[in-house]
Design brief:
heterotrimer; A alpha/beta; B alpha/beta; C mainly alpha; B: D-Maltodextrin-Binding Protein, domain 2; 2 domains; C: mainly alpha; MetI-like fold
Chain lengths: 233, 306, 228
């Protein structure tokens, strides 16, 4: 069974149709590239999948279960198996450590319970994974753009999500930072975490993603292996 | 930012704990509603200190006009009243709101005014004088004015009574022109206003003497049965208001009419003003129109019925 | 002018002498107003959060109403609370009238609109992306509200301090509910009213200077928070 199944999903805001008839599946552990020009609806689709907004029509199955129209409790349950990194992430007014451990704390995780890793060890590990070891006590709102992006990624990774939603994670970064994020994603490939990587960069897709979905003006134009897809523009 | 925030919260919390130590007062409390004249002259402060010490309680004094004081009694918000308006006192007892009237002290109201007495009412009795002020005030409101408490206090009640005696309907008086001004405030504030405007007003003797230092007004008419001012204590009836502290209220009234209480009243003010502000009721029952029962020592009122 | 000048001098002397009664009244004032601000805060901050986050019919009208109540006349609140907690009123059994607890209750009601309103404004000022981020990271609705309140803590703290300032400087509730009982419910504002009516203008001025100084300190604190 696929991890995520999107069926004829549409989203309109007023008369404007943002997404129309999207059908998409994501398998466990795969990296799916979602490519499309600016304004093609990538962010809207990711937000719908993350259950932040409600679709106009259509449905989403997570783990084979319908998620929309369910009580908030079930939405929360599904949402807690995912994590999303926004295109321009914001940090809570607190230290890096508090930011990175946020999701864990919201899940009721206190600190080291028998046998498990302590929360501070998990933060340390997540920071090491994004190459920002030792940043724990920094004020999260004084970081550079690249650092913020990587902390946001650590904040999502620490949750070990089954599905990671990344919205243009390298669009606003200098080449060095972008490369280090790409390396990190490469290491994620083959883990149990599935990734949807929204980008407008086909090269990045070819490098990281197994399959690619092409989005244009709110419609899915093609889905296929990344080396076989040709862009319609 | 976080540090400052925490520090401030800490300081505020410490301060709050510190202050709560001040706020905490232990022991039984007796709530007394009274007229401003007893509070503003400082007499009740003296009585409170002695009474608190002797009975190891705390006398909480809420002061206002006789009108609001009686209201507090009728709502059961206080345990005991000390007021000065016979008509309303009798009604309070008749309605079953209070146990009994106990006369504790008296003095006289003064009609006070500017030294040169622009209305020329000196030597008249009080009701004639008011009529004279009205007549002059209507024809020359810039020169002759009268300030009324206008607050349903005992003093205000007396003023209304005097208008009635002079043959006027009060509602006709208080709308008859700019010479008649309603202050709507306590005695002290009303005296200050009268002083600013160089107007006539009616004041109890004790408040006038306590404020005399700041005033250029002088007593125009003093004494006479029309201006007799009797202070009466009444315990709130526990049959109507089971929550009131009737026993302690009776203790307090008995303290007021005891020799110790009467001596306190008789001597208060001598030091500061050269003569006492109040006369004790003891031995003057006939003179001030109180019955034998209303002057009996100690009180015969019983809380047991509740 | 002469009177004001000499009165001021005498007032400063009274303050410098650290008159125990003045100290006691000042501390009581701070305690009562701080308690009422605290009580109002623990009720109004979450309430403001709920109003800001929930969508419901009449929300706009409710917020307008709350803002109208910012300048609720203190004597009206005093009267309302008096009728509530008087022995003959619905809450008469609590024995709150003429007690510091009653004043705290009354002042908490008085400052509630300003605290709810300013909390709503403060929370509305937090970027919606913070909410999305919290939600996306698995926060429940209540956790999102708490997160956003934490983000807006400076402005929320300002709301509480403003409430404290309003409670400290009001006289209507303090007089009508407290009764200005010496050594029990007498606070700065009611003392000023009493001492002025008794003609003790110097003492009034001394108390007034203390009151203004506390307000000034609150404002400095506010600026300190907002300045960052």
């Amino acid at each position: 069974m696929a991890l995520l199944e999107v069926r004829s999903l549409s989203k309109s805001i007023g008369p404007a149709k943002i997404l129309e008839g999207i059908d998409l599946t994501v398998e466990r552990g795969e990296i799916l590239g979602l490519i499309g020009p600016t304004g093609s609806g990538k962010t809207t689709l990711l937000r719908l999948i993350n259950l932040l907004d409600e679709p106009s029509t259509g449905c989403i199955l997570f783990d084979g279960r319908m998620v929309f129209g369910k009580p908030e409790k079930e939405l929360l349950c599904a949402r807690r198996k995912m994590a999303m990194v926004f295109q321009k992430p914001v940090m809570f007014k607190a230290s890096v450590e508090t930011n990175v451990s946020y999701g864990l704390r919201m899940r009721g995780r206190v600190d080291a319970t028998g046998g498990e890793m302590s929360m501070s060890d998990m933060v340390e590990e997540a920071l090491a994974a994004v190459g920002l070891s030792g940043y724990e006590s920094r004020d999260a709102n004084t970081l550079s753009g690249g650092e913020t992006q990587r902390i946001a990624l650590a904040r999502a990774l620490i949750l070990q999500p089954e599905l990671l939603l990344l919205d243009e994670p390298t669009a606003n970064l200098d080449p060095g930072s972008a490369a280090s994020i790409d390396n990190l994603l490469q290491r994620l490939a083959g883990s149990r975490t599935a990734v949807i990587l929204a980008t407008h960069n086909m090269q990045q897709c070819r490098k990281l993603a197994g399959r690619v979905a092409v989005l244009q003006a709110g419609r899915l134009m093609a889905v296929g292996k990344s080396e076989e897809i040709t862009l319609p523009w | 930012m976080d540090r400052t925030f925490l520090k401030t919260a800490l300081v505020l919390m410490t301060l709050s704990v510190l202050c709560s130590a001040v706020g905490a007062v232990e022991g039984e409390r007796l709530k007394l509603a009274t007229t401003t004249s007893l509070q503003d002259t400082g007499l009740l402060d003296v009585i409170k200190d002695k009474f608190d010490e002797k009975y190891n309680v705390s006398l909480d004094v809420v002061s206002g006009g006789t009108g609001i004081a009686i209201q507090y009694g009728e709502r059961g918000d206080v345990d005991v009243l000390v007021v000065h308006d016979k008509e309303r006192e009798l009604k309070f007892i008749k309605d079953g709101q209070g146990l009994e009237r106990r006369c504790i002290a008296y003095n006289y109201f003064y009609l006070v005014g500017p030294k040169d007495d622009p209305a020329g009412v000196k030597g008249m009795n009080a009701s004639q004088a008011l009529a004279g002020i009205m007549e002059k005030g209507k024809s020359n409101p810039a020169k002759v004015m009268f300030i009324s408490r206008g607050d349903n206090s005992g003093t205000h009640a007396r003023e209304k009574l005097l208008w009635k005696k002079a043959g006027y309907n009060y509602s006709a008086v208080n709308s008859s022109g700019p010479w008649y001004i309603e202050a709507g405030q306590g005695m002290g504030a009303t005296l200050n206003i009268a002083n600013e405007k160089q107007a006539y007003t009616i004041s109890d003797m004790s408040t006038f003497m306590a404020y005399q230092g700041n005033l250029t007004l002088v007593p125009i008419i003093e004494g006479g049965s029309e201006l007799l001012n009797v202070y009466v204590a009444m315990a709130v009836n526990p049959k109507k208001h089971p929550n009131v502290n009737c026993e302690l209220a009776n203790e307090f009234i008995n303290y007021l009419v005891s020799d110790e209480g009467q001596d306190l009243i008789a001597s208060y003010g001598t030091e500061k003003f050269g003569k006492p502000l109040f006369s004790p009721a003891r031995g003057n029952c006939d003179l001030i129109g109180c019955s034998v029962a209303e002057c009996a020592v100690p009180s015969s009122a019983s809380c047991a019925a509740a | 002018m002469e009177e004001i000048y000499s009165g001021l001098l005498r007032a400063l002397e009274l303050i410098a002498a650290v008159d125990p009664q003045v100290v006691e009244i000042t501390l009581r004032s701070i305690f009562i107003s701080l308690s009422s601000a605290f009580l109002a805060g623990i009720i109004c901050i979450p309430l403001g959060g709920i109003i800001e986050f929930r969508q419901f019919w009449g929300k706009r009208a409710l917020i307008n109403l709350i803002q109208t109540f910012y300048s609720l006349p203190t004597v009206t609140v005093g009267l309302l609370v008096f009728l509530l907690i008087s022995r003959s009123g619905p809450l008469g059994g609590l024995n709150l009238l003429f007690s510091p607890s009653g004043m705290i209750f009354g002042q908490a009601i008085l400052v509630s609109p300003i605290m709810i309103g300013l909390t709503i404004t403060a929370l509305a000022g937090v970027s919606p992306q913070i909410r999305d981020t919290a939600k996306s990271l698995g926060a429940t609705e209540m956790q999102i509200i708490i997160t956003v309140i934490k983000e807006a803590r400076v402005a929320v703290m300002a709301a509480v301090l403003l409430g404290f300032g309003r409670a400290l400087s009001e006289v209507g509730v303090a007089m009508m509910i407290g009764g200005n009982i010496r050594g029990y419910t007498r606070v700065l504002t009611t003392s000023i009213a009493l001492e002025t009516s008794m003609g003790n203008l110097e003492l009034s001025m001394a108390l007034g200077i203390i009151l203004i100084s506390i307000s000034l300190a609150i404002n400095l604190l506010l600026n300190r928070f907002q300045g960052r």
